[in-house]
């Protein structure tokens, strides 16, 4: 029985050394450094140290005593460029200028002449906490029943894994928490104007906190009273505008006419459109006149040439006709004699 107990104890001890311990938790503020201890006072000959990171167990650093190798170049490819430092004597790893993305599980494996050793480290990098902002809330103080109280809001933005709390002295009055989501938090508080107690709003995470104290006399000023509108008073001044004298520009003063100093956007748009249309019409008219003038000049230049050509053609024209011969009147061979009867009267 004793031998069995010894055997089980040795087996458990060996398995613990081979597979790993339960893991060490490390918390650090963003921008600070964190050192992961190897648990070895000094590396021996033939010892090989390997550092792995993340769920995929990506190698980021290595120490080989026989080969005299100490390298962190593997970490450069996964976002640790110039931010890893190895201790060649112990194999411990230091992460400098930590970032939120550095959060995760780190594993060290040491192998050599002795039994292999594996250690796990759970590292959480926290962002710097904002200072809580106190805001006077008049929306909840409008009713007459709470006009004797001061309503305050404590707000923080873009936070994760934090708690926001109101304290009265050292006692917690109310609290709200958020996990990993980056959101905004607001926590209300009501106090009396004559309250002399100390109130503070605190935001905190695992390793740090920020506090803002409430100064009642300074921040808790009475909200402006809301008055009931008079029925005779118009609700909107735009419905009953008060008359105002029109202002004139210097050019209008000389001509004796007045115009408002301001015009509505629609009026300005209409004027601009009209001006653009008039300009386009004038441009088209000018282009048409120029085109007509050019065409008339070309016509005047062509007419004399055409007339000259016609005259030249007229001079050169020859009319051919069939000859017609007429017989001249022949000279009468005999003179014409007219005979008339003579009547003799007795």
TrEMBL record:
The keyword Zinc-finger does not apply. InterPro entries: Ig-like_dom, Ig-like_dom_sf, Ig-like_fold, Ig_sub, Ig_V-set. Residues 1-20 form the signal peptide. Residues 225-266 are annotated as: Disordered. The chain crosses the membrane at residues 269-293. SUPFAM superfamilies: Immunoglobulin. Residues 130-217 form the Ig-like domain. Keywords: Membrane, Signal, Transmembrane, Transmembrane helix. Residues 249-266 have a biased composition (Low complexity). The keyword Ribonucleoprotein does not apply. SMART domains: IG. Pfam families: V-set. This is Uncharacterized protein isoform X1. It comes from Danio rerio (Zebrafish). The gene is LOC100002141.
């Amino acid at each position: 029985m004793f031998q069995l107990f010894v055997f089980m104890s040795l087996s458990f001890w060996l398995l613990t050394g081979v597979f790993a311990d339960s893991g060490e938790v490390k918390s650090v503020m963003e921008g600070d450094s964190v050192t992961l201890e190897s648990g070895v006072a000094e590396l021996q000959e033939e010892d090989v140290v390997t550092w792995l990171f993340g769920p995929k167990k990506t190698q980021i650093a290595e120490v080989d005593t026989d080969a005299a190798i100490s390298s962190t170049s593997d970490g450069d490819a996964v976002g640790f460029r110039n931010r890893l430092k190895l201790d060649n004597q112990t194999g411990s790893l230091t992460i400098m200028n930590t970032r939120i993305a550095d959060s995760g599980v780190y594993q060290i494996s040491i192998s050599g002449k002795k039994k292999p050793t594996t250690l796990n480290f759970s590292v959480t990098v926290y962002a710097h906490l904002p200072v809580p902002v106190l805001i006077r809330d008049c929306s909840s103080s409008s009713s007459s029943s709470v006009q004797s109280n001061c309503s305050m809001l404590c707000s923080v933005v873009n936070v994760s894994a934090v708690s926001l709390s109101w304290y009265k002295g050292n006692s917690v009055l109310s609290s709200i928490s958020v996990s990993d989501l980056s959101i905004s938090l607001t926590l209300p508080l009501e106090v009396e104007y004559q309250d002399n107690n100390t109130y503070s709003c605190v935001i905190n995470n695992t390793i740090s906190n920020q506090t803002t104290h409430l100064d009642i006399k300074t921040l808790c000023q009475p909200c402006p009273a809301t008055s009931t509108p008079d029925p005779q008073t118009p609700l909107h001044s735009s419905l009953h505008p008060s008359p105002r004298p029109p202002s004139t520009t210097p050019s209008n003063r000389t001509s004796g006419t007045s115009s408002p100093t301001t015009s509505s956007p629609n009026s300005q748009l209409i004027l601009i459109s009209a001006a653009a249309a008039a300009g386009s019409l004038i441009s088209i008219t000018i282009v048409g006149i120029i085109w007509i003038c050019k065409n008339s000049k070309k016509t005047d230049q062509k007419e004399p040439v055409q007339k000259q050509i016609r005259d030249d053609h007229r001079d050169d024209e020859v009319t051919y006709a069939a000859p017609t011969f007429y017989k001249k009147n022949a000279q009468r061979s005999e003179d014409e004699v007219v005979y008339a009867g003579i009547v003799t009267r007795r």
